[in-house]
Amino acid sequence: MPSRCEIFCEILIAILLPPLGVCFRHGCCSVEFCICLLLTILGYIPGIIYALYAIVFVDRDQYFDEYRRPLYAPA
User: Fold this and answer.
1) For position 17, what pLDDT does the model report?
2) What is the model's pLDDT at position 29?
3) Cα dihedral across residues 19, 20, 25, 27: positive or negative
4) Contact 27, 69 (CB under 8 A)
5) Does residue 12 belong to any structural domain of this protein?
6) Is residue 71 part of a domain?
7) Mean pLDDT by 10 residues, the chain (75 residues)
8) Rounded to an integer, what is the distance from CA 23 to the centroid of its chain?
9) Is 64 exposed, middle or buried (0-12, 13-18, 19+ CB in 10 A)?
10) 29 inside domain
C-alpha cells in the first residue's frame, strides 16, 4: 500500500505530465499507461482525468504478479 506522500507526489506529476504519473504507479507497459498516453495525445484534460482515476482508484496490487510488476517495486 503506497503512503499518502507517494500518492500526493504521483498526483502532482499526473497533473503536469499525465502519462508519467501513471507510469510511476502502474509501469510503462501497462494498459493504464497506454490509455492515458492516448487520451493525453487526444486532449490534455481527458489525460489528466484518467491519470487521476488510474492513480487514486485502480488498485495495482491485484493486477501485478511476479512477472508483471514495475521495475522499481520492491521484490
Assistant:
1) 93
2) 83
3) positive
4) yes
5) yes
6) no
7) 80 92 85 92 94 82 57 54
8) 5
9) middle
10) yes
